Amino acid sequence: MLETLNRHWFLLVNATPASSDWQIDTAKYIARDLIYIMPVLVAMMWLWGSHQRTNERRHMVIKTALALAASLTISWLMGLLLPHPRPFAVGLGYNFLQHTPDSSFPSNHGTTSFTFALAFLFWYRLLPGALLFITACAIAWARVYLGVHWPLDMVGGLLTALCGCLIAQLIWNYQGRHLHLALSRLYRLCFAVPIRKGWVRD
């Protein structure tokens, strides 16, 4: 039943040879490149910003890193334990994005982008979190549209991201202060020159 719905939803979203070139090209940009905005944004939050909110922003960055590590580990394990072929591997629909025929569930792109979005929603601000969540949904749509993922791969990515954020919060509750101090010392050691020159925040 669930697999039937998955296939039906996929065919509703998947592009066809009748789709215009600009639609395919736009979807490829969203599917492959839009995700890079997220780690750049998180890095900027650590390196720059007002002194008054430095700790808040860096706490969020650390939690995000923990959530990513947890969610991608879960995704990797699920891919090993519950392998699922991609649509083009079973000859369904059309594929417009080159990809290896490995397990599709859950989507690593979906897991990563939803983890960033949920991190901002849970641990920072509603507006940037909502914008990143919309971005994550666009990435999820594009990868289904181009034929490299099933819709339920993206639902799985969202649920995996939720689990990763939960694990990150639990780790933070027990070791957050120590992690912040240790990473701050490492940062000041590695970025001593840029900090001294005022290029990045202390």
From TrEMBL:
Listed transmembrane segments: 29-48, 60-83, 130-148, 154-174
Catalysed reactions listed for this entry: di-trans,octa-cis-undecaprenyl diphosphate + H2O = di-trans,octa-cis-undecaprenyl phosphate + phosphate + H(+)
GO CC terms: plasma membrane
A GO MF label: undecaprenyl-diphosphatase activity
Phosphatidic acid phosphatase type 2/haloperoxidase domain: residues covered: 61-169
Pfam families linked to this entry: PAP2
EC id: 3.6.1.27
InterPro entries, alphabetized: PAP2/HPO, PAP2/HPO_sf, UPP_Pase
Major enzyme class: hydrolase
Keywords for the protein's UniProt record, in alphabetical order: Hydrolase, Membrane, Transmembrane, Transmembrane helix
Origin: domain of life: Bacteria
PANTHER family: AT30094P, SPHINGOSINE-1-PHOSPHATE PHOSPHOHYDROLASE
Protein name per the record: undecaprenyl-diphosphate phosphatase
